[in-house]
C-alpha cells in the first residue's frame, strides 16, 4: 500500500517503522526536519517538510495516488482538516485520524462522510484508559489483550519464585486445573522466546503468555504467582483526561484516590467523580503520599502528561510501600530506561495506539491487532474465508497450516463456540483465529496465507 503519515512523533515514527517492515510505500510529513532526518537514517521512507494540512504539502507527498492517510500529529484540528482536504480534493480511499479532545469525540455525527470524512478515529486516551483498566481488573499480570469481543483474553504473567508452577512442566497445568481450557501462546526466558512443549520446565522470572476464556483467567494466574490478591485500593497520579476516565471506570468497584496539581482542574474533576477522593497536590510529594497511606495502596498509576513526573512519582510510591506501580511513558528511550526498575508496568501509549492503527491496515479480514513487547511480537485475530479450492487454510487441519515457526494458533471462535487449538481441528470458513507471533516481521506471511485467491481454482 501507498501510505502517507502526518506527524513524525512517537506514534507516527513507530507506525512508519511497522509499515515499512511489512513492505509498504511510506511517506512521512512533519514540520520538524530533524525528526524526519532521524527517521530516514534507519528507514527506507520518503519525507516531506511542511504543514500537514496544506494541499501543496500533501501534493508533494503524493496524495493523488495514495491508498491511505494516517493523521497522527499532536493537533486534532490539523488531523481533521487534512482528512477533509484528502477527501474533498484527492478522493483518498481511507483516512485514519488521531483525535484527543473529548468534546469532538462526544459528537460522532461530526465525522460523517458529509461532514469531516474520517473513516477511523483513534483516541489514545481512550485506548490507554481501557488498557490500564484491564490491568487493574486482572491483578498480577503484565499485559491483558482481548479477543472475540472480550470473551477470551491473552495474558502475560511472570512466574514467581516459590509459586505452584515454579519448577513445574507445562503439562502439569492440566493436573492442577483439569476443568480449565487454555493454550500457552509463548514463553520468554531472558528476553528470548523458547520452544513450546508440554515438557518445558518453567523457571522463576519466565514470562508466560496464555489464552483462556475471560472468566477463567484469575484461576490460571494464581498458579504462577506466590501471593495472589485482588487490587482494591487505587491511587491515580494525574487528573487529566486519562486520570479522570480511569477514576470513573474504577470508583464503583475500588477505593480510588486521585491527585492533581492544578487546583481548578482538581475542583472540576471532584464535581464529576462521585465515589473518589480528589486531592490537590504534587504527585511527587512524599509527605502527601505518606499522609494518604501509600503503603496500603495496591496500585499506584502515574498518568500525567510528563514522563519524568510519572517515572519519579511511581518510583517514589514503590519505595514508600505501594504494592504495584504503573507508569505511562511516552518516549521509547524512557521505556527502555525503566526496565528492571521498581516500576512494575510501563504503559506505552504509542504501542497501544499502533495496534489499533494496524488493525485497519492489515490485509485480509483482520479483526484485532495487538502490538507486544515494544513492537517485537504481535497477536492478531483473523477470519478464514473461502473454501479448500480458494483458500490455503479452510478445509485444512491446524497441523497442516504452513505457518512460520514463530506463529502459534491459540484459539478459534466458531459461531458462538470457542475451541482451543488442537492439531486435528479442521478450519471452516468464517472461523476467527487468534495467532500469536514472537517475531513481528512474520505477520506478512500469515496475512498472505489467509488471503482468498482465484489462483487456487
TrEMBL record:
Gene3D superfamilies per UniProt: NAD(P)-binding Rossmann-like Domain, Regulator of K+ conductance, C-terminal domain
Matching Pfam families: TrkA_C, TrkA_N
Gene Ontology, cellular component aspect: plasma membrane
Keywords: Ion transport, NAD, Potassium, Potassium transport, Transport
Single Gene Ontology MF annotation: potassium ion transmembrane transporter activity
InterPro entries cross-referenced by the UniProt entry: K_uptake_TrkA, NAD(P)-bd_dom_sf, RCK_C, RCK_C_sf, RCK_N, Trk_Ktr_HKT_K-transport
Domain RCK C-terminal residues, every copy: 142-226, 367-452
Domain RCK N-terminal: 1-122, 231-347
Domain of life: Bacteria
NCBIfam families: PRK09496.1-1, PRK09496.1-2, PRK09496.1-4, PRK09496.3-2
Protein name: Trk system potassium uptake protein TrkA
Organism this protein belongs to: Methylophaga nitratireducenticrescens
Lineage: Bacteria, Pseudomonadati, Pseudomonadota, Gammaproteobacteria, Thiotrichales
Amino acid at each position: 500500500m501507498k501510505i502517507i503519515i502526518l506527524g513524525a512523533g512517537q506514534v507516527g515514527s513507530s507506525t512508519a517503522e511497522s509499515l515499512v517492515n511489512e513492505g509498504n510505500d511510506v511517506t512521512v510529513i512533519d514540520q520538524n526536519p530533524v525528526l524526519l532526518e532521524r527517521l530516514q537514517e534507519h528507514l527506507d521512507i520518503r519525507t516531506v517538510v511542511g504543514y500537514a494540512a496544506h494541499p501543496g504539502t500533501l501534493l508533494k507527498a503524493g496524495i493523488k495516488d495514495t491508498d491511505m492517510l494516517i493523521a497522527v500529529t499532536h493537533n486534532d484540528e490539523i488531523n481533521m482538516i487534512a482528512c477533509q482536504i484528502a477527501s474533498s480534493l484527492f478522493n483518498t480511499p481511507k483516512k485514519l485520524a488521531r483525535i484527543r479532545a473529548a468534546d469532538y469525540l462526544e459528537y460522532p455525527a461530526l465525522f460523517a462522510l458529509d461532514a469531516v470524512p474520517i473513516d477511523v478515529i483513534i483516541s489514545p486516551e481512550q485506548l490507554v484508559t481501557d488498557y490500564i483498566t484491564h490491568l487493574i481488573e486482572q491483578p498480577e499480570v503484565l499485559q491483558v489483550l482481548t479477543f472475540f469481543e472480550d470473551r477470551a483474553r491473552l495474558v502475560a504473567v511472570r512466574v514467581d519464585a516459590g509459586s505452584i508452577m515454579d519448577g513445574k512442566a507445562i503439562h502439569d497445568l492440566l493436573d492442577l486445573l483439569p476443568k480449565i481450557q487454555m493454550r500457552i501462546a509463548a514463553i520468554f526466558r531472558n528476553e528470548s522466546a523458547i520452544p513450546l512443549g508440554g515438557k518445558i520446565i518453567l523457571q522463576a522470572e519466565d514470562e508466560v503468555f496464555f489464552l483462556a476464556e475471560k472468566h477463567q483467567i484469575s484461576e490460571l494466574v494464581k498458579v504462577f504467582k506466590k501471593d495472589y490478591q485482588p487490587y482494591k485500593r487505587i491511587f491515580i497520579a494525574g487528573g487529566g483526561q486519562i486520570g479522570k476516565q480511569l477514576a470513573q471506570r474504577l470508583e464503583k468497584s475500588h477505593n480510588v484516590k486521585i491527585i492533581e496539581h492544578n487546583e481548578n482542574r482538581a475542583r472540576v474533576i471532584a464535581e464529576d467523580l462521585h465515589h473518589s477522593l480528589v486531592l490537590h497536590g504534587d504527585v511527587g510529594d512524599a509527605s502527601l503520599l505518606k499522609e494518604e497511606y501509600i503503603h496500603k495502596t495496591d496500585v499506584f498509576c502515574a498518568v500525567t502528561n510528563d514522563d519524568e513526573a510519572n517515572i519519579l512519582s511511581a518510583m517514589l510510591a514503590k519505595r514508600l510501600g505501594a504494592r504495584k506501580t504503573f507508569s505511562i511513558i511516552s518516549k521509547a528511550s524512557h521505556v527502555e530506561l525503566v526496565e528492571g526498575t521498581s516500576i512494575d508496568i510501563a504503559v506505552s501509549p504509542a504501542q497501544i495506539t499502533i495496534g489499533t492503527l494496524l488493525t485497519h491496515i492489515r490485509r485480509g479480514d483482520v479483526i484485532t491487532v495487538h502490538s507486544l513487547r515494544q513492537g517485537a511480537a504481535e497477536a492478531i485475530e483473523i477470519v478464514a474465508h473461502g473454501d479448500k479450492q480458494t483458500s490455503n487454510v479452510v478445509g485444512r487441519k491446524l497441523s497442516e497450516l504452513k505457518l512460520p515457526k514463530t506463529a502459534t494458533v491459540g484459539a478459534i471462535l466458531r459461531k458462538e463456540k470457542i475451541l482451543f487449538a488442537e492439531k486435528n481441528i479442521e478450519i471452516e470458513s468464517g472461523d476467527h483465529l487468534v495467532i500469536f507471533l514472537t517475531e513481528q516481521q512474520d505477520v506478512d506471511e500469515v496475512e498472505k496465507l489467509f488471503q482468498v485467491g482465484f489462483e487456487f481454482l
